[in-house]
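Entry 14. Two folds queued back to back today. First construct below, sequence then structure tokens.
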Amino acid sequence: MLLCEAGYEDAKHNLHIESIRKQKLPINKVIPAVVNLYIDLYEQDAIEINNGMCEDFAADVCSLVSNAKAFWLDEINPIIKDEFGEKIRNITAHKVIKYRGRYYDSQCPEGTTNWKELIR
């Protein structure tokens, strides 16, 4: 589901984002706060966010964390192959956040140095 399909209201959404911004939280606290926003406003949990709302979620997190950048996984490494050289799966449909050498998404608020851990 896309954010616009879940009942997105610009003013309401931005009010909640601003309330998170005022707290000046580190990224490992921003991510759960934004997940909770999506649960409260859109009834979408972390798993659901990662299956349709990851682009909006990454944009929200990046707007709250200075120097955080959002990337589609295929921008990090366009082809993932198994040990036999076969393409594992199409990973272009997941947007993640990179910050200070770690990769994050709605299910990984502590981040990981191995972006492949975010392929689900």
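Second construct, same run, same settings:
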Amino acid sequence: MHEQSPNAMVVNKRMGPRQREIPSADVALRGIPIVLKSSKAHPDCAAILAEHGHFGAARSHLILAIEESEKARTLGQIVLKDPLPEGTVRLRLYSHSERHIGALRKSWSQGATVDYAVDSLRERLRLKPAQSDEQRWQLAIARHPEALPEDWPARANQLREAACTLILVPTACGTALPMSTQRSMWSSCQRLSTCCST
């Protein structure tokens, strides 16, 4: 019989995120390097799959890399005793969808938000023509390829799941996507993963 470490966190996959245990700061600290190692392994797996023409499955691994990076960030917040509501922590650790939202926020906070604020200030000082908020966001996002698309939380699960089913294999429901389309989807996902999992 395999013995479980007394400090290990037991995760019952059948339990929903709201019932799962939140790790202690000590367990979270030990978990960060494990999760980061997983995050860094996914792009390597994706590259191998892409080299063999399996772009859909490769894309799936890139999305998982982003998710793992976000999970590591949440573990870091537990270690730093960031005052997050328990429900939020559980969702960030155990829900793919919640990690997609966090990844979107992280990707925008790096450069796009700063550009938006600087552009806004330049407009107020009349150093630049006035724009609408929407125009300002669109320009800021366009200048930052690391910024995930605004609909990322809604699309990420769909992209990850579709990568292993509809895209790769012709079925009774339809044909596989053309290889050029798969390659293009892989490239855009690879760029997003590289920016967001670091």
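Quick look at the second one. The chain is about 65% helix and 0% strand. The first helix runs from residue 25 to 51.
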